[in-house]
Amino acid sequence: MMSTNEDTVSDLFHVYINARFEIKKHVSRRRLALVVVLATLLPIVFYAIPPLFDEDYPDTANEFASRNLLFISTFVVISAAMFAGDSVVTEFEKRTGLSLFSTPQRRTSIFAGKYIAALLATWLAVACYYLVTALEIGQIYGFGEISLGFAKSFLISLLYASAAVSFCYFFSCLLKKSITAMLAGFFVLMMILPIVSQVLNIADVDPWFILTYNGSLITDVLGILSGSAMESVSSFSPDFYVGVAVVVAYGIVFFYMALFLANRKAMEG
Amino acid sequence: MDVIKTENLVKCYSKNVRVLDGISLSIKKGEIVGYLGPNGSGKTTTIKILTNLLYPTSGHAFINGLDVNENPKESLKAVGALVEIPGIYDYLTPREMLTYFGRIYGMERGKIDERIRETLKSVRLADKERTKIGAFSTGMQRRLAIAKAILHEPEILILDEPVIGLDPKGIKEVRELLREFQKGGMTIFLSSHLLQEVGDTCDSVIFLDKARVVAHDTVHNIRSKAGGKSIIVRFTNPLSETEAKKIETVAGVKGVSVKNGSVQIGYDGSPDTSYQILSDLMKAGHHIVSYTPEVVSLEDFYISVMSDERGVS
C-alpha cells in the first residue's frame, strides 16, 4: 500500500498525464490551432482597418487597446466552450470512458487534468490575443505606452477565462450530449446572463453577481468608456474588487460543482 | 488465493430494476473463466463493477484482495480490461493512445515503446502504429482495444465479449492469444455469447440468469455431468436394422438405433463401458470406421440450465 505522500504524488502525476493527453487531443483535433489563429487575426483586423479606410488610430494606446479588446470576452467564451464544453460529456457519449475510467487512477485526477488542459488552452489563446495587441501598440505608439491598465486587463481576462472554463466545464459534466453541453455553456454566457444583467439594470438592481456583467472590467480598467449600446442603458458599473471576487468565485464554485457531478456520473447503459 | 472475488453484489437501477441479485463468485490465479448468460442477465454489469465503471448498490468486488470501488488505484493496476465496445479517439494514432495508457499504468517510456510494438504486432496492427484510428475498420478498432488491455502485461485480464466484431481469423487469433496468456500465468475472466468459444478456451464457466449465478463448474465437469450417454458408430458397410439389433446383446449397451447409416448406441456414459463396448464390437468382427462418444456441448447444458431456471421441462 502507498503512503499518503506517495498517493498524493501519484495523483498529481496522473493529473499531469491527463492534462497533457487532453492538450494532445486539442492539438490533434486542430481546435487549439483554430483558436490561436482567431486570437491572432482578431487584433490584426483592428490594426488593419483604420489605414484601409484612411482613418487615424486612436490618440492613446489605452484607447487603441480598449477598441481591440471589445471582443475579448466573446472570444474567451468561444475558447472556453471549445475546450471545456465537451471534454467530459464526450467520454460518456462516445463510450471512450469504458477504456479511460477502468484504469488505475482516481476519477478526480482525470477530471482535474481535463479542466487544467481546457484552462491552459484558453489562457494560451487569451495570451496570444494580448501579445498581438501589445505588439501593435508597440508598433504604433511605442512599447513604453503599454500601460499598467493593459497588464491589469490581461490578468482580469485570465480570471474571466478561468470562470468561463469552469462554467462550460460544469455543463459538460451535467449534460448528456456533447453538442448540447457546448451550446449551453456558450449561449448562457453569451445571451442568457447578459439579458438577465440588462433586465436587472432596467429594474434598477445592481447585477454585481452576474459573471458577464463583471466581464466589462476587462476594458474598464483601461479607463476608457467603450460606449456600446448595451452599456449606454446601464446605470451601474462593476466595482473592481467586488467584480474580481465574483469572477474568482464563479471559477471556483463551478469547478467544484463540475467535479462533484463528474465523479457521480456512471458508465451505464 | 482468489484473484477475483465478489461478495453478494447487488445492483439496482431503481426500486423495480435489479440487475444483479447477490452475485458471489471467486476465480483463482491462472484460471480462464467464462461468464455466460442471456442478454440482460447481468454479465456486463458485473464486469463494470469489477473495473470500477459502476458502483454496486451493495456488496463488494475484490481484485487481489483489494476492494475495487474503494481502492481502484491499487487494485486496477493488475487488471487489463476490455468492456463492451469502447469508443475510440479517432483523431489519435494507436501510438499516441497507447502511450497515454502506458503512462497511466506507470510504465517507463522505453518499456512503453517496446510494448506498443509487441502488442500491435500481436493484434496484427504493427503497420498502423502512426495511422489515425478514425481510419480503422471495426475489427481493427476491436483489436486495438485488446492491445490496450494487454499493454501493461496485466496479471488479470477482464474481457467483455472480446471477439465481437472480429472476423474468423481474428477470433482464432484471440483464442490463441488467450491460451498464450494463460501459459504465462495470467488469469482471464471473459464474458461471451459464443459458447463454442468459451468451451474451447475456458477451464471453467459461470452461468448467470436473471441476475443470479445458476451454475459454476469446470467445463470438464459440466460435460461429464450433463452426460454424453450415447456413442455414434460408423461401419465400412452400413448395418441393417436386424444387424443393429444384435448389438443390443453386447454388455453395457442400453439401446440401439440406426441413423443415416450410422448406429447410435445408448450406454451409461462411463469411459470404461465405452471401451468395453468397442472391444466387444471388434471381437464380434465389425469393421468400424469411427467410434465417437457423443459430447454434450455447452450450448446443450446452457439451454438445460436456463430451462430448469424457467421451469421448462
Keywords:
heterodimer, A: 269 residues, mainly alpha, 75% helix, B: 313 residues, alpha/beta, six-stranded mixed β-sheet, four-stranded antiparallel β-sheet, 11 helices, 14 strands, 36% helix
Describe the structure.
The complex is a heterodimer of chains A (269) and B (313). Chain A starts with a helix and ends in a 5-residue tail after the last helix. Chain A has 269 residues and is an all-alpha fold. Chain A has one domain. The radius of gyration of chain A is 20 Å and the shape is globular. In chain A, helix 7 (107-141) packs antiparallel against helix 13 and helix 8 (148-174) crosses helix 9. Chain A is 75% helix and 0% strand. By secondary structure, chain B is an alpha/beta fold. Helix content of chain B is 36%, strand content 27%. Chain B has helices at 43-50, 72-75, 94-104, 109-122, 138-150, 168-183, 195-201, 219-226, 241-247, 271-283, 298-310; strands spanning 2-12, 18-28, 32-36, 58-63, 66-67, 79-82, 156-160, 187-191, 204-209, 212-218, 230-235, 255-259, 262-266, 288-293. Chain B has a six-stranded mixed beta sheet with strand order 6-7-8-3-9-10, sandwiched between helices. Chain B has a four-stranded antiparallel beta sheet with strand order 2-1-4-5. In chain B, helix 3 crosses helix 4 (109-122) and helix 4 (109-122) crosses helix 5. The mean pLDDT of chain B is 88. Classes of the chains: A mainly alpha (269), B alpha/beta (313). Chains A and B meet through helix 1 and helix 6 of A and helix 2 and helix 3 of B.
